[in-house]
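Deliverable D4.2, example record:
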Amino acid sequence: MTHPGTTYLVRLAQAADIDAITSLLQANSPSHGGSLTGEFPRDKVAAMADGTSPVVVARRVADGPVVGVLFSAAIATAQAPVVLAMLAAYAGGNGAYVYGPVCIAESERGQGLLALLYAALREQQQGAEAVLFIRRDNLASLRAHARLGMRGVAGFVFDGAEFAVYSDAIVAQ
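Output generated by the structure prediction step:
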């Protein structure tokens, strides 16, 4: 159990982090009862963290396990069918990027780690608009992202599941 005031080491992911990131994602994948969309074998994780877009990781101690990860990707490089469905519903403004997936170890949830990962990614992305999707039945994630100031801007259905599209840009009404 983590206690309030826990400090995290948040930094850009490195090649040496791939196995630890893979372990975290696999532990939270649908095949293990998690709420991530899709499975994350090592080769997929390595391709997602290929260095073309920032990936931020968090650890509680320098040599400890990765307890949080937040990916980003250029919209132009999107290939996953669920991401393409999101972008068809809302593609974001000029310079927007795909935010996610984000995964936080169960032991670290509710400790403010998402805000730390997001702040580090925003700095790397120089404040560009983040566009992401969240399953509508993932109420904890919807609430957590709303606390970051993100808002629902669209929705879509993929493989029979309903998703909300969120953005951190101020959207004109």
